[in-house]
């Protein structure tokens, strides 16, 4: 077993850090959800970039760390990025954090990482919490394939069109959502994605942590999902293709192909049943050949 390398707080600031950009995950609620390595990096970095320096300062103070902080949010990014890239060239050790969880996951940092890597600076991930993965692990839904889709659009038409795009994908879907929009979003998911099991994970790792499981229709009507307070992840299980027999799929395919032809017919059935369009197209050709 590898030896643990725990450090005392005063040792942390002396941790030897290679020059580069450190992408540091921070807690999503409970301040103790931070790794020892994240504390080492935050203590020894020359500069810590925070979305909001008050939030970052509070986290560092809770762990007894004094660091130089600089705001790096979507407004400051354009102005601050050239300075950060220049300091990386000069050999600085710079930590990028966000208000909560993993930077770049529905948070700023993508362009900075892209440009830092492009100029040859080292980029080190310092992994830790993300609300998306925390929700996935508690949802009780399949985890073998999942797709993180961030915040759905706020307008109904755009939101439904996103759900239509995601409907045929055979994977668990993860969304970030806000309290005021949750009920409408769940109702649109139920209308477009149909009968699927889902989970609403609210205020994870915090005092009012709540995990509600049920079908999308049940969740859309659940009193706990009507404008709840706090931060929310919605996890939606994959389409229930495994419950569709080959005969049922063939029947739907034959009907659609007779109406639309093999290509459009396969596409329609793929979307409706959550099956692979390519597999259905191949099957449509087999069925057509068998008929001759
Ligand atoms: N980078 C963060 C991460 O890795 O989780 C996410 C940042 S995004 C701007 C903020 C959204 O994440 C919230 O609106 C909510 O949907 C979700 N979120 C953050 N903390 C959460 C928590 N403790 N419980 C549930 N959802 C949370």
Walk me through the structure.
The chain has 292 residues and is α/β, with parallel strands linked by helices. Helix 3 (53-62) links the parallel strand 2 (47-50) and strand 3 (69-71). Helix 10 crosses helix 12 and helix 11 crosses helix 12. It folds into 3 domains: 10-129, Cobalt-precorrin-4 Transmethylase, domain 1, CATH 3.40.1010.10; 132-236, Tetrapyrrole methylase, C-terminal domain (Methyltransferase, Cobalt-precorrin-4 Transmethylase, Domain 2); 246-291. The chain starts with 8 loop residues before the first helix and ends with a helix. The model has no long low-confidence stretch (mean pLDDT 92). It has 12 helices and 10 strands. Bound molecules: S-adenosylmethionine. S-adenosylmethionine binds next to helix 6, strand 7, strand 8 and strand 10.
Oligomer: single chain
Number of helices: 12
Spatial shape = elongated
Q: What average pLDDT do the residues reach? A: 92
Keywords for this structure?
Methyltransferase, Cobalt-precorrin-4 Transmethylase, Domain 2, alpha/beta, Cobalt-precorrin-4 Transmethylase, domain 1, 292 residues, binds S-adenosylmethionine, 10 strands, five-stranded mixed β-sheet, 16% strand
Short description:
By secondary structure, the chain is α/β, with parallel strands linked by helices. The chain is built from twelve helices and ten strands.
SSE order and pairing:
Layout: H1 9-12, E1 20-24, H2 36-44, E2 47-50, H3 53-62, E3 69-71, H4 77-89, E4 93-96, H5 110-118, E5 123-126, H6 131-139, E6 146-148, H7 156-166, E7 172-178, H8 179-193, E8 197-202, E9 210-215, H9 216-221, E10 231-236, H10 246-260, H11 262-273, H12 277-291
Parallel strand pairs: 1-4, 1-5, 2-3, 2-4, 6-7
Antiparallel strand pairs: 7-10, 8-9, 8-10
Helix pairs in contact: 7-8, 10-11, 10-12, 11-12
The structure holds S-adenosylmethionine.
């Amino acid at each position: 077993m590898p030896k643990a390398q725990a450090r005392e707080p005063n040792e942390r600031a002396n941790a030897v850090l290679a020059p580069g950009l450190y992408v540091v995950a921070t807690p999503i609620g409970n301040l103790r959800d931070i790794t020892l390595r994240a504390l080492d990096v935050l203590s020894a970095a020359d500069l810590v970039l925070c979305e909001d320096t008050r939030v970052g300062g509070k986290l560092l103070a809770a762990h007894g760390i004094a660091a130089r902080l600089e705001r790096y949010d979507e407004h400051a990014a354009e102005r601050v990025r050239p300075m950060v890239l220049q300091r990386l060239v000069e050999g600085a050790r710079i930590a990028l954090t966000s208000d909560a969880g993993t930077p770049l996951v529905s948070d700023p940092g993508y362009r900075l990482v892209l440009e830092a890597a492009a100029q040859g600076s080292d980029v080190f991930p310092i992994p830790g919490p993300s609300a998306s993965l925390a929700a996935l692990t508690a949802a009780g839904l399949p985890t073998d394939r999942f797709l993180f889709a961030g915040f759905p659009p706020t307008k109904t038409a755009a939101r439904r069109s996103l759900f239509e795009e995601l409907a045929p994908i055979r994977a668990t879907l993860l969304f970030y959502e806000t309290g005021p929009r949750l009920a409408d979003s769940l109702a649109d998911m139920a209308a477009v994605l149909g009968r699927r099991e889902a989970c609403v994970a609210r205020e994870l790792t915090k005092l009012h942590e709540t995990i509600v499981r049920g079908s999308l229709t049940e969740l859309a009507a659940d009193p706990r999902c009507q404008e709840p307070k706090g931060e929310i992840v919605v996890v939606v299980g994959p389409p229930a293709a495994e419950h569709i027999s080959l005969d049922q799929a063939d029947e739907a395919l034959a009907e659609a192909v007779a109406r639309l032809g093999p290509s459009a017919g396969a596409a329609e059935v793929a979307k409706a049943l959550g099956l692979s369009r390519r597999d259905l197209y191949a099957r449509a050709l087999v069925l057509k050949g068998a008929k001759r």
